[in-house]
Amino acid sequence: MKRTVLLLLGLLVTVLSFAQKSTYMVARRDTCDLYMDVYEPTVIPGDTLQRPTILYVFGGGFITGQRDDPWVLPWFKLLNENGYRVVSVDYRLGLKGVPMKFDLFHLIQSANYTKKAVDMGVEDVFAAVRYLADHQEELGVDMDNVVISGSSAGAMISLSSELEACNRTVRAAILPEGFHFAGVMSFAGAIMSDSGKPEYKRTPCPQLLIHGTEDGAVAYDKMGFGRWGMFGSSYLVERVLAPAGYVYQFYRYVGHTHDMAANMMANWPEEKRFLEVSVMGKKPLILDCTLDDPTMPAWQSVSLDDIY
Question: For residue range 249-293, what is the model confidence (pLDDT) as tens digits?
Fold first, then answer.
């Protein structure tokens, strides 16, 4: 059975041929070397839009996953065919081998482990951004037009990367002077904080947030206590983005769980509108949509105990 699955995945990768894919080493860490794959877009005759580069951060609970997971390649292909360059990056898996427990006596410890894993991921993503900036001419990347996106753990890293870029943290010091993301696309993401409600020191870029209301892995609203917390999409919209008038588009999928972390293909219409209106069009469109959509793919619920 395992051999059959591997053969099918190999066939999928073979069928999904890309116009041009290049791989670059971004940084060296004590435990591993970090790479990124660049997927060049299909040339669209007559297209004059200045489309952003999509920087993708994979998911996997900080214990698994890779930048070229077979299930996400069809989405890369879709983006390429619509004129978008995709850059998929590595980061260190900060919870791999870490004993995570979620009972009352271990919550703070597990929260601390998770925060460190997110911070590590942000550091590695910023290294990739620095590499893009240092090689922007040869790679054809406009550093004023980079949208960061991520799934699950990758969405947590993406949201935190924008927060740290806005706040010019120590980790953000590696970024080019004046750099900011043109947008964030978060698929079932949250911000992990040890200092209370997240706050931006400057206006954040437009954000696309897609989340299931019954997500048991990454908080839809908020999980935590005291100043520790995992601040999910709903909390961020209602307590951070909306009160300040920041630009966002939020899609709440009723009854869905963590499956929304991997429904990027099904959510392409929402992504397309976000990219064309909020990013390229720079229009301050704000949406907060609650959807009970029976056509949206739904998978088995995943909890923290299932992952760890």
Answer: 999 999 999 999 999 999 999 999 999 999 999 999 999 999 999
**DSSP characters over 84-105:** --EEEE----TTTT-----STT
Contact 132, 141 (CB under 8 A): yes
Q: Within 10 A of 100 (CB to CB), how many other CB atoms are there? A: 18
Question: What are the angstrom distances between the C-alpha of 270 and each of 159, 214, 237, 296?
Answer: 18, 20, 17, 13
Q: Rounded CA gap, 278 and 184, in Å?
A: 11
Distance CA 250, CA 245 (A): 14
Domains present along the chain, CATH in parentheses: 22-307 (3.40.50.1820)
Give the pLDDT confidence of 201-224 residue by residue, as tens digits: 999 999 999 999 999 999 999 988
- Whether residue 187 contacts residue 261, with contact meaning beta carbons closer than 8 Å, is answered with yes
Cα 19 to Cα 28: distance, rounded to the nearest angstrom: 28
The answer to whether residues 171 and 164 touch, using CB atoms and an 8 Å cutoff, is yes
- pLDDT, tens only, 107-152: 787 888 899 999 999 999 999 999 999 999 999 999 999 999 999 9
State if pTM tops 0.85: yes
Nearest to 161 by CA among 144, 143, 185: 185
Q: Name the residue among 250, 161, 237 with its Cα closest to residue 211.
A: 250
Instruction: List the Cα angle 79/276/157 in 5-degree steps.
Output: 60
